[in-house]
Specification:
The chain has one helix at 47-60, and strands spanning 112-117, 121-128, 136-144, 150-159. The chain is mainly beta and 177 residues long. The chain has one domain (25-71, 88-168): Nuclear Transport Factor 2, Chain: A, CATH 3.10.450. It is globular, with a radius of gyration of 18 Å. The chain starts with 46 loop residues before the first helix and ends in an 18-residue tail after the last strand.
Length: 177
């Protein structure tokens, strides 16, 4: 048996089909990923927290490390998804993400973040809205893989049913005066 950190994450959630109008309205224009790709509204306390967040930001920005998360799993307990949705675009405006006639929409911004440093692991909790959907709480675990590389090992999202839909605001018509 391996030694070291173990993770037990449990959520009791009600899985249900989407309700009419629940998908909201996605923007019909490009939305750059500034938050969280370049900044988050949280100042890490330790060097490990800073490094873990920076590596996650690199992953979310689409700079070539988007597939670095969720490695070396020993056991997957289970997952129940009633309405799987595939993102119209993955984070970052890379050629793979660009679909003709569809805007590139950055990853969900971070409204609140908090991290805890456990030496070789960092735990993060974030509140994030999602375009066309409801906000969610994310809880993530990052591990130090050496040489300053922090990898997201686990990520769980719990939708906040009482949250309003994050929707695009139509642009105002230009004045002809």
């Amino acid at each position: 048996m391996r030694s070291g950190w173990k993770l037990l994450h449990t959520n009791e959630i009600a899985a249900r089909p989407a309700q009419p109008g629940e998908n909201g309205v996605r923007p019909d224009f490009d939305v750059p990923c500034l938050n969280p790709c370049k900044e988050v509204p949280y100042k890490p306390i330790s060097a490990s927290e800073k490094a873990a967040l920076e590596n996650w930001q690199d992953q979310e920005s689409g700079n070539g490390h988007h597939d670095m998360h969720m490695g070396d799993q020993e056991v997957t307990i289970g997952s129940n998804t009633m309405n799987p949705r595939k993102s119209a675009t993955a984070p970052g405006p890379t050629p793979v993400n660009r679909q003709p006639g569809r805007p590139v929409i950055g990853t969900a911004p971070v409204l609140y973040a908090r991290t805890w440093d456990f030496g070789d692991a960092v735990v993060a909790v974030m509140l994030q809205p999602t375009w066309g959907g409801k906000a969610y709480w994310s809880s993530r675990v990052f591990a130090n893989h050496g040489n300053g590389f922090w990898k997201m090992e686990e990520s769980y999202h719990t939708t906040i049913q009482a949250a309003p839909l994050m929707t695009a605001v139509p642009s105002k018509a230009k004045s002809t005066n």
